[in-house]
Amino acid sequence: MLRHFTSLLFAGLVAAGGVQAAELHIGYQKSSLNLIVLKSRGTLEKQLAAQGHTVKWTEFQAGPQLLEALNVGSVDFGMTGDTPPIFAQAGGTQLVYVGFEPPKPQASALLVPADSAVRTLADLKGKRIALQKGSSAHWLLIRAVDKAGLKWDDIQPVWLTPSDARAAFESGKVDAWAIWDPYYAAAEKALKPRVLTTGQGLVANQSFYLASKTFADKQGKLLQTVFDALSDNDDFLEQKPKETAQILAKAVGLDAATFDTVVQRRPSFRVTWLNPQVVAEQQRIADRFADLKLIPKTVTVKDIVLAPQ
Predict the structure, then answer these.
(1) Helix ranges (DSSP H) in 84-209
(2) Do residues 58 and 103 lie in contact, with contact meaning Cβ atoms separated by under 8 Å?
(3) pLDDT digit string (tens) for 237-278?
(4) Which of 106, 193, 248, 293 could join 265 in a cystine, given CB atoms 3.0 to 4.6 angstroms apart?
């Protein structure tokens, strides 16, 4: 996977002996299954140690917080959903797309209480809906509102982190909750909500690997090592789903049955370059957010996509 990464990113690096030891700082979320398993297995640490490098891992509640850390230089590399990098690019963050995972539309949903009077997407009019601003759930909700024939101003978004959103949903302070796995799967198991809609037919719900532009420009060999490790990890994830769920359960603190569901909702973990279709979909998302004036300016996604040579 991504075997031409070195030829693209190594330009500008000092020749043999010029690459100094570094600490790679990776940001991840509870939804960053590939990275969590990679961290738990310790394979990346071993590979980087052989090069004289170390790794520091930091968990974030959601993609917007992770990319804010990348913006200020405390994270070099991380994984988010489709919407956070669009908000980050519009806000001036110097980042680049370096890979993506296949669509997983079933891994996000719009939930309502089991006894809710909300039966259709059109019933969302006037309702309070919890979600993380600038997250993949934000895009899911926009698409749901569009499909219902409503305007964005017809609903009342309540901006909350996933943990705060669950508390608000559970206590009845909001009418609905737009959320992604594993929070979605955990809520299904514990709260027994009704799924008003998943992302199926609405959003691709793809995951993206991103790096700060400065890091990508200067540390091509480190990024190549990360992708080599992810490639090996992809094989583990796809060949050992039960063991994967057990590793995730231990690392995240949710039960293995929840992660069995999470893993089943993902068709693949395979990380590849962004292709023109994926870039076009990201641009469609960016354009819609700009139309709604939910980001400060329009952006051109392809400008920050690293491509194979």
Answers:
(1) 84-90, 136-147, 162-170, 183-191
(2) no
(3) 989 999 999 999 999 999 999 999 999 999 888 898 899 999
(4) 106
- H or E element that contains 236: helix 220-239
* The pLDDT of residue 131: 98
Distance CA 175, CA 129 (A): 6
207-212/77-80 β-pairing: antiparallel
**Domain residues of the chain, as ranges?**
5-103+206-304, 105-198
* pLDDT tens, position by position, 133-187: 999 999 999 999 999 999 999 999 999 999 999 999 999 999 999 999 999 999 9
Distance CA 283, CA 303 (A): 11
Select from 3.40.640.10, 3.20.20.240, 2.60.40.10, 3.40.190.10 the CATH code of 5-103+206-304.
3.40.190.10
Top-level class of domain 105-198? alpha beta
DSSP H or E segment with residue 198? strand 194-198
**CA dihedral for 240, 25, 278, 120, sign (positive or negative):** positive
What is d(CA 282, CA 298) in angstroms, rounded to the nearest whole number? Answer: 12
Distances (CA, A) of 147 to 15, 142, 152: 54, 9, 11
Task: Tell me which of 20 and 299 has the higher pLDDT.
Answer: 299
Residue 8 has pLDDT above 80, yes or no: no
Average the pLDDT over 91-109 and give the result.
95
Q: What are the b/e assignments for 292-308, b being 16+ CB within 10 Å?
A: eebbeeebebeebbbee
Phi, psi at 193, each rounded to 5°: -75, 175
The pLDDT tens digits of the residues spanning 192-208 come to: 999 999 999 999 999 99
Question: Could you tell me the two tokens for 96?
Answer: 């680049």
Measured between its terminal Cα atoms, the distance across the chain in Å is: 14
Phi and psi (nearest 5°) for 25? -105, 115
